[in-house]
Amino acid sequence: MVADTIRLAVTTDEDHVTAIHLRSRATRPARGAFERLVDRELREYFAGRRRAFTFPIRPHGSPFQQRVWQALRRIPFGATRTYGEVAGEIGQPRAARAVGMANHRNPIPVVIPCHRVVAAGGKLGGYGGGLALKQRLLALEAAGR
Which residue is catalytic, options 114, 117, 133, 137? Predict the structure, then answer.
């Protein structure tokens, strides 16, 4: 799947998204009702017409990563949190670095919004899709608030 000018590929199992690969090209167009739903919702998000996704996801990761990713999904559209704030939310206030590593290993970026996590002091930090894409996603959400 390709969402307009954002290059991405989506991996699914029978009825869940299991990965989104940024800066990749889909090897084929969306097929079937589920894949078309995912494609439509991602296109709507990138066009600024969607704030939340309805399709189910199944990220694979450690129990710690799962807790971090659940916390990321609770960050409101258009808002940001620091790595330290996310660490505090999951009950491990000294685990900001580990939160950063869980973000780095996020298999479903955009839907699990790791782009909404910034370094202390508001610096962007890193992003698997590149800092330009992180800035673009944050700007898209800021405009849609």
Answer: 114
